[in-house]
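Morning run. Coffee first, then this:
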Amino acid sequence: MHDYKGSVVELDQQQRTRLNEIIESKILRFCWFQSLRFLLEMSNKALRVLAFAYKTIEADADLESKDEYNVHNIEKSGLVFCAFVGIKDPLRDGVEETVRKCKAAGIKIRMITGDNKITAREIARECGILDKKSVVMEGEEFMKLIGGVVCSSCRTAECKCPRSKALADAQNRVVRVDTIANASEFDRIYKNLDVLARARPQDKYALVIGLKERGYVVAVTGDGANDAPALLKADVGFAMGVSGNCLRICNC
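And here it is:
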């Protein structure tokens, strides 16, 4: 390289290593900001974003072991990033009109989705669900604020209280009744909570519990086995097929 006088100077190994570290950090920082920009742009267009990467593995590689978060260890390092892909799931015809009619009839529609907050907000906006007071919240934050669901007698999430009438009769005990741990916080949130993003089955179940406790008639739609608790707890549960058609209705 050239020094400040313009003379050619040979770098020693330590200087070469340091220079490479600087270059790599600058490139990584640039790539990180570019990736974040692409993610935000796609999310703001209501696109579901997937990242693709690959890894060369040996024939005897460990494909089974997982960490405490149930992530395969082999997937945690050594991956070569390929690209982000944005997938558009277009609204079905008539969704906006249906939402408008529900609102006119006094029916409150809330969207509970596994999408991130940005994508979920944009989809809800396209559906006509959002208004000026709408709150968009992630499931984990929601559960932390309300304290989750607990037994109304034991005040704990896990207890030995029977959950069915048959079991309660056999044990000569009272059936467990679920309730929201922090009722005042739920009251503060729920009226304007229109979108629950990155939602898990327990988040959906908690929202149903809280609304029913406050005297609302609750209808829930779901398209997977994980939605069963919320579907069964709701006054009306609609189990949806792959195409969005209703498979069955359970009145509970």
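The domain at 95-147+182-251 is CATH 3.40.50.1000 (Rossmann fold). Good start to the day.
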